[in-house]
Structure prediction request, 268 residues.
Amino acid sequence: MKIFGIINITDDSFFAPSRTTNLKKATKYAHNLIKDGAYSIDIGARSSHPSAKKVSFKVELDRILSLLKILSASKAKISVDSYSTKIQRLLLTEHRDLKIDYLNDINGFNNPDIYPEIKEHNCGLIVMHSVQSKGPADIRDVSSKKISLKIIKFFDKRLNELIAAGINENRIILDPGMGFFLGDDPFCSVKAIKLIMELKEIFSLPVMLSVSRKSFLRKLTNCTLEESLAPTLAAEIFAFHHKVDFLRTHDVKSLVAATKIWQILQTA
Prediction:
């Protein structure tokens, strides 16, 4: 299992310790994530939670490029979290000299116009499912009884589209979405976590989860954002036990320690 450490070059991402628009602080934060055990740094420059501010294309691109140029020399993998087709295209063409190991798209690469550029690059693709299908998260009522089938149908359709465009399926990582990306019912996220093994069996592809500090955990445990590390680790260890391939988290050091103890107890 590999860990993606979250860094947000924003001023409104929901978890304050992970966010900064100061390049010097962002660089230090990224290097600390790597030191703590992150396999990849996941750079986001535009928040996607329901009350996120709008950010211009230029601001988002400038934020991403400023940190990419510094981290391109890093030994860690670099992931760019953006659902902007325009930004994805520029990263894959004009800025392909920069280190981009993964593109992470909360809309699951819903615009086929970008497929030719994706085909010509070799970066990994984190294809996320969301009930919104387009744009950032919102708050909507979704039945937890139907969410598993929705997720499977989405991946079946999107994978067929990507493969038909000539994109190698070995580049693809599946992310079922979490929190408000699955609806307001916290049990939608519970169902998605328990879907890990089935997704791996159906599609024979790696799976990523991003449960870190999410609203559904706080809702289920009646805790604050500041108190949400314990429920986050519980969900992450459950996913780790069920063979998730990637975990995207704010708390890299804590997750590394938790998985280490779990492994020691399993093998002692």
